[in-house]
């Protein structure tokens, strides 16, 4: 550029502008003007399509109620559109003004909006929570997808804004025209729209399609304007390219000529990568000093070029693409064939090179040989990685040839965690980790991974952007599944939490009754009322009013009075005390039994039995021969309403609760596993092995704050099981469960390869 030749007009990272200066202010105004003009155009274009989209959905609605939702949404959008547009543009304008003045007050992030916790039994609050979650997931997914898609242009905007703002660090989340703040501003503006959540989610999709998808033009215009003003005009040559020099050279320099600005690499990643590469170079060098093949056996010949290697690999790749894909039903059979291919790819490559040039090469360049061996070790690791189900091991192992091509085209594949090919393989392995036949009955996850493997085998030539495209498709699939799974997972957790509250209330009620009964031997009638009907009333009182409520204290006072009413009445004073207790006992019983769904007829029958019992206690003659005559006489059992049947035995089964042994009584192997269990965090995955070696992959979803039990769900968010820490430690000690690694596949593979090469290096004197 001409400006680049005039050092007075160029602003580099060392020449930071004062945003309050004339030039800094003019540049920020230019950014503000470009953004306001384009966003006004984008938002207007989006609303022009809302009416048509809602009308089409109304026509296709499954019933009249759904149709009315869409028609109501259309009317509301027509009425409130100007207000929503003005609110959105005003929020963006405010953000740009605050940014220019250095006062950052971003609109609320979707991840910080609290989702109300529904009260027990509150359907309305539960619906509010679900709506909030649906909306938050839609916004978060939109932001993540577009930040990834726009990473290159967005990175350049961040860097240039940082320069004209005095060196302040600008990131995706703080960029006033970044996807995050724009999506948050639109969400806040949408509060002006009183519409059904289904309608709002449709509008968010249209916002993604017509506003977010057009941001690339906005960023390119902003970058072009700032470049013309001399702000980092050579930025594309000053940042580390994810494609790397090797890729540019091998692919004929097309990447370098494109002028694209790559996603930046984290500083610590570069340092760690350099150290890793140096370690690998050292280990491979030591390995070559003691070759497995004697040098005399090698024939002389010209070393194959990178282009020849790529050509030979392309032939092998086309042959591999025609082979049938492995089936989930026979992973062990498939793995044998795949393992043979992985181990012998180097020999096949040398043979193919010989066919192409008419002469088998004796050697290949050192860097190429190291790359071939490194990729081979990577895929050997994949076939041995117990983190992956066998069905997924054989699928991912088919990618060895495309990844060897990618590694030859771009030597930085193994160095940078953010390399597109590396991100794709890590993403596939992460998705595959959660796979099981039970959680993937429709085969959608297996088919998605299989389709990506097939596309790489069939379509990858030398265009590295295919890895970005396939990563985006995988991410979109994962997000759509994650959204459904999170909703299911939330419902499972809420259900489990509710059951635990109920169980805790049952045990509290049972303890209170048992403690008060103590050594008293109660008549069957009194014991039956306390252990069944009144136990239920105590439970419901705890759940509805709480253990500190007056209602609960009054219910416990009734227990004391009811037990006291069974004492012998041999003196006039004792009979007088009993007569004083009886009215209160009857009132409390009527109130309590009505609350636990007893019918009036049942209540009257119980009271009649109690009247007969108390007349006998007081020494009065029974009114009819049918009434019980002794304290031990057992009246006909009362029917227990279905609504309270599940907790009716709360007193009787209290002693059946399994208790965990004391720590000194736990076996050493179980104690070792228990230490691992105690440090588990929600989000970690485990593999559970059942009968006939059937396995299920499950994520630790929730740890109960009440009981400490661990809740596990599968990838669809459905419950797999729940365990106490001791129960889980026992299962692990028996080999029926194991923890899966949480770090990325590539990181695990690199550690394993370094370890393997290190052990080879310590035996240099051994014969090959």
UniProtKB/TrEMBL annotation:
Stored InterPro entries: DUF1631 (IPR012434)
Superkingdom field: Bacteria
Chain segments annotated as coiled-coil in the UniProt record: 485-512
Compositionally biased residues, Polar residues: 1-12
Alphabetic keyword roster: Coiled coil
Record region (Disordered): 1-24, 251-270
Pfam assignment, any one: DUF1631
Record-given protein name: Thymidine phosphorylase
């Amino acid at each position: 550029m001409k400006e680049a030749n005039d050092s007075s007009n160029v602003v580099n990272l060392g020449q930071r502008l004062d945003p309050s200066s004339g030039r800094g202010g003019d540049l920020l105004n230019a950014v503000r003007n470009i953004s306001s003009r384009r966003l006004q155009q984008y938002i207007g274009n989006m609303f022009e399509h809302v009416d048509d989209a809602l009308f089409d959905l109304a026509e296709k609605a499954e019933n009249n109620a759904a149709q009315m939702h869409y028609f109501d949404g259309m009317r509301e959008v027509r009425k409130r559109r100007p207000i929503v547009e003005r609110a959105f543009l005003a929020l963006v304008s405010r953000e740009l003004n605050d940014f220019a003045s250095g006062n950052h007050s971003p609109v609320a992030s979707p991840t910080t909006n609290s989702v109300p916790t529904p009260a027990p039994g509150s359907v309305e609050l539960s619906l509010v929570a679900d709506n909030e979650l649906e909306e938050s997931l839609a916004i978060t997914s939109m932001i993540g997808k577009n930040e990834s898609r726009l990473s290159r242009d967005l990175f350049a905007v961040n860097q240039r804004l940082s320069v004209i703002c005095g060196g302040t660090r600008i990131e995706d989340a703080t960029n006033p025209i970044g996807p995050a703040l724009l999506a948050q501003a639109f969400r806040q503006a949408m509060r002006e729209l009183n519409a059904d959540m289904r309608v709002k989610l449709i509008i968010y999709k249209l916002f993604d399609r017509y506003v977010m998808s057009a941001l690339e033009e906005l960023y390119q215009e902003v970058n072009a304007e700032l470049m013309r003003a001399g702000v980092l005009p050579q930025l594309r040559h000053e940042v580390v390219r994810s494609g790397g020099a090797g890729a540019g050279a091998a692919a004929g320099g097309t990447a370098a000529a494109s002028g694209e600005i790559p996603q930046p690499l984290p500083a610590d990643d570069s340092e760690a990568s350099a150290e890793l590469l140096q370690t690998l170079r050292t280990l491979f060098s030591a390995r070559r000093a003691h070759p497995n093949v004697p040098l005399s056996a090698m024939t002389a010949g010209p070393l194959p070029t990178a282009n020849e290697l790529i050509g030979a690999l392309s032939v092998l790749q086309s042959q591999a693409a025609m082979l049938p894909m492995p089936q989930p039903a026979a992973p062990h059979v498939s793995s044998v064939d795949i393992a043979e291919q992985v181990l012998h790819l180097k020999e096949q490559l040398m043979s193919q090179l010989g066919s192409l040039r008419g002469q088998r090469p004796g050697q290949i360049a050192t860097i190429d040989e190291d790359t071939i061996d490194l990729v081979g070790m990577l895929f050997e690791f994949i076939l041995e990685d117990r983190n992956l189900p066998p069905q997924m091991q054989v699928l991912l192992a088919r990618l060895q040839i495309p990844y060897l091509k990618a590694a030859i085209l771009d030597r930085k594949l193994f160095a940078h965690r953010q390399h597109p090919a590396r991100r794709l393989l890590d993403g596939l392995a992460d998705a595959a980790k959660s796979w099981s036949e039970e959680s993937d009955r429709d085969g959608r996850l297996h088919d998605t991974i299989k389709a990506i493997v097939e596309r790489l085998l069939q379509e990858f030539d030398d265009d590295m952007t295919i890895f970005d495209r396939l990563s985006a498709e995988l991410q979109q699939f994962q997000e759509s599944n994650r959204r459904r799974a999170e909703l299911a997972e939330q419902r499972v957790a809420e259900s489990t939490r509710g059951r635990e509250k109920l169980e805790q209330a049952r045990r509290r009620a049972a303890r209170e009754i048992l403690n008060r009964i103590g050594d008293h031997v109660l008549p069957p009638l009194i014991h039956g009322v306390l252990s069944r009907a009144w136990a239920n009333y105590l439970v419901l009182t705890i759940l509805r009013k709480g253990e500190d409520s007056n209602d609960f204290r009054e219910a416990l006072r009734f227990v004391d009075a009811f037990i006291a009413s069974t004492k012998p009445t041999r003196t006039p004073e004792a009979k007088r005390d009993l007569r004083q207790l009886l009215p209160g006992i009857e009132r409390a019983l009527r109130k309590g039994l009505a609350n636990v769904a007893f019918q009036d007829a049942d209540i009257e029958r119980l009271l009649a039995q109690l009247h007969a019992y108390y007349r006998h206690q007081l020494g009065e003659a029974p009114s009819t021969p049918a009434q019980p005559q002794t304290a031990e006489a057992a009246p006909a059992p009362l029917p227990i309403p279905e609504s309270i049947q599940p907790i009716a035995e709360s007193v009787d089964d209290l002693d059946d609760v399994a208790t965990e042994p004391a720590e000194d009584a736990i076996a050493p192997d179980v104690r070792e596993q228990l230490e691992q269990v105690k440090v588990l965090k929600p989000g970690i995955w485990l593999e559970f092995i059942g009968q006939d070696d059937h396995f299920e992959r499950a994520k630790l979803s929730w740890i109960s704050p009440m009981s400490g039990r661990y809740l596990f769900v599968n990838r669809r968010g459905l419950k797999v099981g729940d365990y106490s820490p001791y129960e889980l430690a026992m299962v692990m000690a028996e080999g029926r469960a194991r923890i899966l690694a949480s770090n990325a596949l590539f990181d695990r593979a690199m550690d394993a390869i370094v370890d393997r090469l290190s052990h080879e290096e310590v035996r240099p004197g051994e014969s090959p």
